[in-house]
Amino acid sequence: MTLPEAEHNLSLAVEAVVTRFGAMVRQVGRRYRLDEADLDEVMQEVRIRLWRAQRTSEQIGEVSTSYVYRTASSAALDVIRRRRSRRAEHHQSIDAEDGAVALAEPAPDPHGALEGSEVVRQVAQAIETIPASRRPVVRMYLAGHPREEIAGLMGWTEGKTRNLLYRGLADLRDRLQAMGVGWERAEEAG
Amino acid sequence: MSDERLRELYTAAMAARPRGGETAHPSPESIAALARREGSEESRLATLDHVMSCADCRRELDLLRSIEQAGGALGSAERQSSRRWFVPAALAASLLLAVGVGSRLLRQDADTTRGGSEDAVALIQPGSSAAAGGRIVFAWHPVAGASRYELELLDTSGGVAASAVTRDTSASPAAVEQLPPGEYRWWVRATTSDARALRSDMRSLRLTGR
Ligand SMILES: [Zn+2]
Asked: CATH 2.60.40.1220: which residues of chain B?
């Protein structure tokens, strides 16, 4: 067997591990809005790491699920860091090239596209006045996340989640009413 | 207005925000802590508050929590079945041969072999060397419940130089008698009637010239 063949076979074996874990992440990620391209990038990074680890390791040892998971977890952080720095570079280069033009242009009206933009602005303002302990819950609810997901993410009971959401929506309603924005009814949050 | 209308307005408000919102992006570690439920509730809520109003960070959270949950799901499945993935053991073994996985058994092994030394296949003979060109008997200790044993002898390139499948606890493949002197490795995999696979360690064998 030639080395390329051997490497091919090795990559098949690594692939078996990576595929299994990747499939599970994909399955879980469907519940959210996991970007498949993000996952692909992470799993590619995991492949490379498993390769390197196995090449340098003197030990014959098993690699447990938790090892693969930890590898994926730290690979994801690296992918995120890389992406952030790419984004920063991109913005910098845009600033460098078009800075003068951008400064000369008037600031675009952020709400121009939406009818009733005054209401949009008021909603954004009212959200900010909700106490920090319940504001994120209201944000999740308004963004369409089910209550079970909020509870799961924060590690809260169903009751605690319902209570915080109920109170947060009440805060929002009061604030909007004070601003003169009518809110006919708070859909049952509990 | 209705909740539905409020949601629309909220979505519009979020879309109209400057990229990244008004606060700085939390560190990737903070988002990971949120996904893992690590750290104080207060700090996780602060992170969540930003994440829910920032499309970039939200995408990062979705990635991290998908990985976290997959790890948790697989971990508990593994604990229940007490199975381990053995691929990397096979990889490491084959890499000691300075090549990739050349063995069919090693590849098959990927998903099925159980860990745990107490129920692994224990090899008996041959020792570390034997004369090339002669009959060599490979033997191992029986494994409870084993319905079949597979023996493989690998050459230095990781290729299968000889193999045997038997219900017995020994085998002497004829192909071994044709092998030139050199370094080899061999191992045995047992398959039980309930379809568990157990493997031996990889043992070195030097075939010496006459
Ligand atoms: Zn952000």
From this structure: 123-208
Instruction: Indicate whether this complex's ipTM tops 0.95.
Output: no
Q: Which residue in B13, B62, B158 is closest to A29 by CB distance?
A: B62
Euclidean distance between the first and the last CA atom of chain B, given in angstroms as a whole number: 95
Q: Is the Cβ of B37 closer than 8 Å to some Cβ of chain A?
A: yes
A166 shares contact with chain B (CB less than 8 Å)? no
CA angle B118, B122, B126 (to 5 degrees): 165
Going from the C-alpha of B152 to that of each of A111, A139, B118, the distances in angstroms are: 71, 60, 22
Contact B7 A11 (CB under 8 A): no
Question: Does domain B1-107 match CATH 1.10.10?
Answer: yes
Q: B187-207: per-residue pLDDT in tens?
A: 888 887 776 777 787 788 889
Separation of first and last alpha carbons in chain A? 65
| Domain around A177 | 116-190
Window B:77-106, CB contacts with A under 8 Å: 78, 84-96, 99-102, 106
Query: What pTM was estimated for this model as a whole?
Result: 0.60
The domain that holds A143 is classified in CATH as 1.10.10.10
